[in-house]
Design a protein that fits this description.
heterodimer; A: alpha/beta; D-Maltodextrin-Binding Protein, domain 2; 2 domains; B: mainly alpha; MetI-like fold; two-stranded antiparallel sheet; 14 helices; flat
């Protein structure tokens, strides 16, 4: 596969300036809005009546919302390339690709009245701000937790990702071999890099998404060893939940979604952010460069920062609000979601971003295309 | 009073057309065949050619956009060790599933054709087809639960005190794994379950066609049952086996649901295409991957034709 020359990348960056300026005022709402979102991200009360943040928006603005769900970041980029959508809730590993691919346009924060309520830790995030321009409004963020079966761990939370990377005896006296899972996506390479960053400081990894050739090879070595331990690579949330229940999985990386759902079934599962920290995602609502329903899109972006929506969504999805005020807002289920979802541990999260050949902490990094290729090989046992 | 000049004018062109067709029968044939030919040519072959053409496009790794610059890089990528593994893995599974379906399917088909009478025959047909009426996804998901460690298969073996048998099977290299639902053995079981009806029905049809007096003649001439089977029944039923194998082989080769739900993590051609096209948007590489089963099946059909699979059609 082709590698990126620095010239090509700088050309790409330069050409992104030619995008038209964001609007300074809004017209009449167009009456409809098409959004690409993660499953469970834009709820209209169809899964559970208490979690509904669309119906009222439609009533107030007259913008009929249609949602197309996507299961992976790569799928989101692919859908945006096809076109026909107005907004996308892009994670950090997709957002820069969308910006440099000129699929999204810069927005004008002045048109979003509650822009200033944003958590200051996020409002200038590198995953949506390029050259001082904002390419979207932060929506939610969360961690990829270390989920573990609390019965097997005898109620004592593991404090390190080593339980999924190194062979060891678990508290129930048996080895972890064949009882752990890894994520079926190339971005998981960063989880291994994050673990090595703390375990082997001599490697000098500063950022798990910016690896030079030598560091990258060490990370792959760790992942190949993990393949021998792993039960399978999880891909489908339903299958993973089944595996926890029926296959005796002891520990795995998982999203708040599975953990919430299994806890809801009274299954003995718990989750932690171990001492190494965790990878995570920060999602941004981004506006398509050829969006047809700009006014409705701006109205949605403003609506998305509403503390009520933010708190309900955080509880529903197992994520964190981007508006600090929302932590004080009571969510429909009444849980202390900011505490359980790691709102205070922002600094320990290495947010997903697309690995690029041109990187800040090194002269040359291994780009995402090689991550995908090598991860497919590792999953195949090579 | 009417005269020939009053013959309705509007019929004249049709009449002339009919004369034309009568004089030129090939033209009539062409007109009749044109709609199906157009369907076949444009919708069927056209999309295949479009796919083939796309496999020469360039995929930009960073922006994940496809450019229309032509390249052979996608075909070259097929020979990367990891991608080559994908092809080989799928091919071996397709062969194994085909072989097992033939071995399991033949006796059932034979019983259906030769012994089952009246309502029994109907019941057998229903029994073979019944699984095909249920949704394929539901069946695949159901198998993830059946084969899980907490599932009914493990329970059954444990009740019989035979759990060491499963452990011994799973300890075998390449077919084994951590549990039935993550091993190649489990995936093979599910594939064979799902595609078996496609093997039974063609074999049954071909055995049905063997005249009973041939078997009697063989016995009269002193052949043992084994000799009758190997020299009379099997050769005559073999085209049916090959016809069934075309289904099981090509269906396994292209499937992308079962490999996702059951078995170890290595990708199959189907899941690879799904990942490349559906989630990464690398349509050129997905297209190049799609060409692989097309070639394998073309080769397979050529061999099948030599073996006489189409004589029975």
């Amino acid at each position: 596969m082709k590698r990126f020359s620095p010239i090509a990348v700088s050309l790409l960056v330069a050409s992104s300036f030619t995008i038209a300026n964001p609007p300074s005022s809004l017209g009449k709402p167009e009456g409809k809005l098409n959004i690409i979102a993660w499953p469970g991200y834009i709820e209209r009360g169809e899964s559970d009546k208490k979690y509904d943040w669309v119906t009222q928006f439609e009533k107030e603005t007259g913008c009929k919302v249609s949602v197309k769900t996507a299961a992976t970041s790569d799928e989101m980029v692919s859908l945006m390339n096809q076109g026909g959508y107005d907004l996308v809730t892009a994670s950090g590993d997709a957002s820069l690709r969308l910006i440099y691919g000129k699929k999204v346009q810069a927005i004008n924060p002045a048109l979003i009245p509650n822009w200033n309520t944003l958590d200051p830790r996020l409002s200038n995030g590198a995953w949506h701000t390029v050259d001082g321009k904002h390419y979207g409004v932060p929506y939610q963020w969360g961690a990829n937790f270390l989920a573990y079966n609390s019965k097997i761990f005898a109620g004592k939370a593991p404090d390190s990702w080593s339980v999924v990377f190194e062979e060891q005896k678990l508290p129930d006296g048996k080895s972890n071999k064949g009882r752990i899972q890894a994520y079926d996506g190339a971005i998981y390479i960063a989880d291994a890099a994050l673990y090595l960053m703390k375990k082997n400081p001599a490697l000098g990894i500063k950022d798990p998404y910016e690896l030079n050739e030598k560091q990258y090879q060490e990370v792959l070595k760790l992942l190949r060893a993990q393949k021998q331990l792993s039960h399978r690579y999880w891909h489908d949330v339903t299958v993973q939940m089944n595996d926890f229940k029926n296959e005796g999985i002891a520990a795995s990386s998982a999203w708040g979604y599975q953990i919430n759902a299994l806890q809801g079934e009274k299954f003995p599962i718990a989750a932690v952010i171990p001492k190494e920290g965790a990878t995570g995602w920060a999602d941004t609502t981004m506006l398509h460069s050829e969006a047809k329903n700009i006014s409705c899109a701006y109205k949605w972006m403003a609506h998305s920062l509403n503390p009520k929506l933010q708190s309900g969504l955080a509880e529903w999805f197992g994520s964190n609000p981007v508006v600090s005020k929302a932590c004080a807002e009571k969510a429909p289920g009444g849980s202390d979601f900011c505490k359980s979802n790691g709102f205070e541990r922002f600094g320990q999260i290495a947010f997903w971003k697309t690995p690029q050949a041109q990187c800040r902490s090194q002269t040359q990094c291994v780009p995402y295309s090689r991550w995908t290729k090598d991860y497919i090989a590792i999953m195949g046992g090579r | 009073m009417s005269s020939p000049t009053q013959f309705p004018n509007q019929w004249m062109p049709l009449r002339r057309l009919s004369d034309l067709f009568w004089r030129q029968p090939k033209l009539l044939l062409l007109v009749l065949l044109l709609p199906p030919l157009a369907w076949f040519g444009i919708v069927y072959l056209g999309s295949l050619l479009a796919l083939l053409w796309q496999s020469f496009y360039t995929f930009d790794d960073f922006t994940m956009a496809v450019t229309q610059q032509l390249t052979l890089a996608n075909y070259q990528a097929l020979f990367d060790a990891a991608n080559y593994d994908v092809v080989l893995r799928t091919f071996v599974m397709a062969c194994a599933v085909t072989l097992a379906s033939a071995i399991l399917g033949f006796p059932i088909a034979y019983y259906m054709a030769r012994y089952a009478k009246g309502w029994q025959k109907g019941a057998m047909y229903v029994a073979v087809m019944l699984p095909m009426w249920a949704s394929y996804i539901v069946k695949a998901y159901a198998w993830t639960v059946i084969l899980a460690k907490g599932g009914v298969v493990y329970w059954f073996y444990n009740q019989l005190g035979l759990s060491s048998v499963i452990d011994a099977l799973l300890a075998l290299p390449s077919i084994g794994g951590n549990s039935l639902s993550t091993s190649n053995l489990g995936r093979f079981t599910v594939f064979t379950y799902i595609w078996l009806p496609f093997m039974i029905l063609p074999i049954q049809a071909s055995i049905e066609r063997i005249p009973a007096n041939l078997i009697q003649a063989s016995a009269d001439l002193g052949a043992t049952p084994r000799q009758t089977f190997s020299t009379v029944i099997l050769p005559l039923a073999f085209p049916g086996v090959v016809a069934g194998s075309i289904f099981t082989f090509s269906l396994t080769l292209g499937d992308y649901i079962i490999p996702q739900l059951i078995g170890p993590s290595g990708l199959y051609i189907g899941t690879m295409v799904y990942t490349m096209q559906g989630s990464i948007g690398n349509i050129p590489l997905a297209a190049a991957f799609t060409v692989v089963p097309v070639l394998i099946i073309a080769l397979y059909l050529t061999i099948a034709r030599r073996l006489g699979a189409f004589d029975a059609l």
